[in-house]
Amino acid sequence: MKKMKEPIKTIKERLFAEEVDPAYVAQLMADERSGVQKLITKYQNQQRKQQQMQEKYAEMSVFEQELYQKGLRFVAGLDEVGRGPLAGPVVAAAVVLPKNCGIIGLNDSKQLSAKKREELFVEIQNKAVAIGIGIADHEEIDRVNIYQASKNAMKRALADLSITPEHLLVDAMTLDTDIPQTSLIKGDARSISIAAASIMAKVFRDNLMKDYHGVFPHYGFDQNAGYGTKTHLEGLAAHGICPIHRKTFAPVKQYVK
Q1: Residue 81 to residues 29, 88, 153, 206: CA-CA distances in angstroms?
Q2: What is the mean pLDDT of the chain?
Q3: pLDDT band at 2, cuts 50/70/90?
Q4: Residues 161 and 147: beta-carbon distance below 8 Å
Q5: How far is it, in rounded angstroms, from Cα 153 to Cα 90?
Q6: Maximum average pLDDT range among 24-38, 44-58, 172-186
Q7: CA–CA dist 201, 95 (Å, integer)
Q8: Dihedral pair phi/psi, residue 177, rounded to 5°
Q9: Cβ atoms within 10 Å, residue 107
Q10: Share of the chain above pLDDT 90, in %
Q11: DSSP characters over the chain
Q12: 171 known ligand binder
């Protein structure tokens, strides 16, 4: 009697479960059904992507691991989001991750989809030792310039932490603090701690700008987060500035009366 082949639906359920026996995968590779072969290809692609993400995580943990090996426990990553927009604040975050936090997928927030950022935002909140948020609003940006305002926001994020870190990993900036620090160019793509800070700041700021959209609906803040998109510029031309616009930024300043 010919042996019944396992239904493709069952194979799919088993193949994408948490743990898959390599012997089972090898067995499936001998199954000539096109539906099974498509599942195998999908599975292999998923495994390859997972492996790449694991390698990226290890690569981005180097700075933290070096500090842990020196006996340090609390390393904070700092980053800011919102230097370029024409409206709204600049937001900074400081994040202290536990050793071997295992948050796979951390990367520069700009390289991630909104959905992935939201997922990682929740995971970081659940796993971080401490998180601090700092804000410099549009008025402060106009008063002291965007670079200084970004520094101020970072200092506030650092002060907002519930613990005092032993070392700082800072994205492309040096802060006025007695805490030892390392400034990393493109740090949000090189350090898991800075990447985590980048994600926390980005999601926090995006949500803030969505709230502002409810108050000032003419500029598309819920979609552009204050950046100078076509919708935003058309809103400026038609309605002028709103109270959270940065008056020292072009082209906003041409609408200041």
Answers
A1: 47, 11, 10, 10
A2: 95
A3: low
A4: no
A5: 7
A6: 172-186
A7: 10
A8: -155, 155
A9: 21
A10: 79
A11: -PPPPPPHHHHHHHHTSS---HHHHHHHHT---HHHHHHHHHHHHHHHHHHHHHHHHHHHTHHHHHHHHTT---EEEEEEE-SS-SBS-EEEEEEEPPTT---TT---GGGS-HHHHHHHHHHHHHH-SEEEEEEE-HHHHHHH-HHHHHHHHHHHHHHTSSS--SEEEEES---SSSS-EEEETTGGGT-HHHHHHHHHHHHHHHHHHHHHHHHSTTS-HHHHTT---HHHHHHHHHH---TTB-TTSTTGGGG--
A12: yes
Q: Which two tokens stand for residue 130?
A: 């401490």
* Tens of pLDDT, residues 112-165: 999 999 999 999 999 999 999 999 999 999 999 999 999 999 999 999 999 999
User: Residue 255 corresponds to which amino acid?
Assistant: Y
Tokens 């995580």, residue located: 57
Q: Distances from the Cα of 223 to the Cαs of 23, 235, 247, in angstroms?
A: 48, 13, 21
Beta-bridge partners for 167:
75
Domain residues of the chain, as ranges? 8-58, 72-255
Candidate CATH numbers 3.30.360.10, 3.40.50.150, 3.40.50.970, 3.30.420.10; the one for domain 72-255: 3.30.420.10
